[in-house]
Amino acid sequence: MTERLDRIETTAQRIADGGNKSKSFEQELKELLDGSEILESYKAKKTGSMVLTTKAPITMTQAASLTGDVIAADRRSGVIFDPDRTQHVRQLLSVTSTSSNRISYTREDFDEDGAKMTGEGAEKGESSFKLVQAEAPVKKITSYFKMSREMLDDIGYLSSHLALRAPQKLMLIEDNQLLYGPGTTVNLEGIAEVASPFAATTIGVAPADRNRFDVLAWAMQLVNQDEYSATGALVNTADYWNMVLTKDDENRYLTPNVFTGGQIRIAGIPVFWSTAVTAGDFFVGDWGLGAEIADRMGTEVRFYDQNEDDAINNLFTAVVEKRLAFPIYRPKAFVHDDFTTALAAT
Fold first, then answer.
1. Rounded CA gap, 315 and 159, in Å?
2. 193 φ, ψ (degrees, to nearest 5)
């Protein structure tokens, strides 16, 4: 006991004197074994051997040694999502507003244009026309999202993200309706329902030699025949790039300026591409004069907690909707068809 107390006092004195320097392995081992029952037994010849077991060292790696978020992530703000459609149909059309549930207009339909040069005593030419009352009812595009209160509260940017993304998704439905809407029940009447079909009896280029440029150029001419001026052609992205890559007999691109940042133009009239157009289809028209979008209600995003059993289930319902009418005042301002039919037309 006296010897151990002496050692304690010596150690205490060493610490007091600032002797907390690093110890050698020999010193550490000596202190570990000093007074050990195993060592004393070995020294007293009570045991013939002494075994010291040490733990094998472990090579530390992140996979083996770290659990959880020990290393803080470099967090990027916001939500990453794929881009939306860049070219919408409404960008080509006139856009106005309405305070009613329908647009009503009167359209002239000429039956017979009998105007002619008339000689003395001769009968005058007779003309006639009809006035047709037409209507474009306001239709509604909607969607909704259901989420928990905790999700809405804990994800601080969720409401603003919905306010951004939900209207963009409604635009996809709007594009389809403006082009292909059947005009029945809840649907708008789209341009494809009333536009003139392609006709190429006098295009002047043999079917075997035609390409998409010829088709669009002749469609623009068909619009001109009815005294309209085409302001643009709209095609699917696959057809647009097919035109870009079209070459002549000497393997030269027909539209080399496109590769330097230009846009395809035919006699100055731009050709636009959009995934809203069915692959193989095309639309050519006097877009601003032929039709217009009448917005009854801009796109709205609203949140409810009293829908159905949302309150007792601690849920929220986000509703997004818009209302619009689409009067096509002048159907002859548009030509719509598909390239396969047009390229084969005689």
1. 14
2. -75, -25
Please state, in angstroms and as integers, the Cα–Cα distance from residue 137 to each residue in 104, 181, 186, 188, following that order.
8, 13, 9, 8
The answer to whether 338 and 282 are in contact (CB under 8 A) is yes
Number of domains the chain is built from: 1
Q: Which of 17-26, 111-120, 249-258, 304-313 has the lowest mean pLDDT?
A: 17-26
Mean model confidence pLDDT for the chain: 87
CA-wise closest residue to 155 among 79, 81, 82, 83: 79
Instruction: Answer for the pair 237, 274: CB distance below 8 angstroms, yes or no.
Output: yes
The most distant pair of C-alpha atoms in the chain lies apart, rounded to whole Å, by: 155
CATH number, domain containing residue 169? 3.30.2320.10
Query: Model pTM?
Result: 0.78
Domain range holding 160?
Answer: 89-103+139-344
Give the CA-trace dihedral at 257, 83, 212, 262, to 10 degrees: -10
Domain annotation covers residue 32: no
